[in-house]
Amino acid sequence: MKPLQDSFSRVIDYLRLSITDRCNLRCLYCMPSEGVLPLQHGDILSYEEIIRIVEIAARLGVKKVRLTGGEPLTRRNITFLISSIKKIPGIEDLSMTTNGLLLEKYAQEIAEAGLDRVNVSIDSFKPERYREITRKGSLETVKSGLVAAEKAGLKPIKINMVPIRGLNDDEIMDFARLTLTTEYHVRFIECMPSGDIDFWSPDRYITTDELKHAIEAISPLTPVRMRKHGPSKYYRLSGAKGVIGFISALTHHFCEDCNRLRLTADGKLRPCLFSETEIDLKSSLRSGAPDEEIERLLMLSIQIKPEGHSLGGEKESRFLSMKGNMMPETAHSPEKRPMSRIGG
Ligand code: SAM
Ligand code: SF4
User: Does residue 3 lie within any of the structural domains?
Assistant: First the structure.
């Protein structure tokens, strides 16, 4: 099959599905403490609708699917969705991003249903602090989830960590050292100005360059070429079993390697995380559109995928150095659509 390409010759083979906007945590950088107004049940795509979209996308050339949210493991009967997507011809890789709270309970059954691997978001290995950042999570439960995921073969396990100055930056080296003794892929994600509008500030934000510089005190970081690396740039500490990834949405655009489309929980196709442009698939699905029309809308979203976002551009550089607390005009507006609804 000819690969699916956008207007800038990027191969688009990855679909991220936000399957729910609900979450059992309230991470400081992602949601306000009271949460966000949940979508009505009827506004959320049904599993049948999601599966139909993935079938059509797979016929066009999508090979990788990630389930995210909100917290994907809070959606009922997720094993049905996993096993149905796994059976779709052309889907080679099915993964999930989760906060891990429900992994102990579900790891075995989601692995048996066909999930290949998980990314687990953990921003601190200190129980009190973990609770502070997530506002209600139990680190012990997540750690049991990690053990269960490993046992169930959901590997390689990727740990997503958002470093925030004054909050968990003293743990950056511990997270990096974790790769010396485990096969984890530890990924540091630059905190983005999305989610809780009041939380993000240049004072809290840590750049990838700063992180790398600090981590190199352990040992040099050798670049690692991964087969499917996506937005992460990977490195290995000397003699390490695992690898360290950096996802630098603000300071090092990865737009030239962007291979993804996003589908929001309420059925909007989003060509770029940082653009408000969306294509409404749900209305077409619910008005009886034939597969050809869904295909056309998928192709349209690929054609209009922007070349890049302008976060971290000149304006944001000035903004970052100003140490003020305003939002970059080009950042996606957290009030309009929080990360938990787009699917981070
Ligand atoms: N609830 C699941 C979880 O936390 O893994 C999946 C959804 S969450 C929105 C996906 C990822 O987005 C998490 O790794 C989270 O840390 C990240 N994320 C959320 N808000 C972010 C922000 N403002 N900046 C950087 N990463 C963010
Ligand atoms: Fe929930 Fe994930 Fe957002 Fe935390 S980052 S509030 S776990 S959706």
Answer: no
For position 316, what pLDDT does the model report? 40
343 band by pLDDT with thresholds 50, 70 and 90: low
Distances (CA, A) of 90 to 1, 93, 297, 300: 10, 9, 20, 21
Whether residue 174 lies inside any domain: the answer is yes
CATH number for position 283: 3.20.20.70
Please give the share of the chain, as a percent, with pLDDT higher than 70: 86
**How far apart are the CA of 258 and the centre of ligand 2, in A?**
23
Distance separating alpha carbons of residues 135 and 140, to the nearest angstrom: 15
Q: What value, to the nearest 5°, has the Cα angle with vertex 340 and ends 212 and 211? A: 5
Average pLDDT rounded to a whole number, residues 111-121:
98
The stretch 106-128 carries a mean pLDDT of: 98
Site to substitute for ligand 1 among 19, 25, 30, 273, most atoms within 8 A of C-beta: 30
Report how many domains make up the chain.
Answer: 1
User: For residue 302, what is the enclosing H or E element?
Assistant: helix 291-303
Residue 7, in any domain of the structure: no
Domain range for 234: 14-342
Q: Structure pTM? A: 0.90
Q: From CA 194, how far away is CA 339, in angstroms rounded?
A: 7
Ligand 1, atom nearest to 342 Cα: 9
Any domain includes 200: yes
User: Closest Cα to residue 266, out of 288, 281, 256, 251?
Assistant: 281
CB 54 within 8 A of CB 91: yes
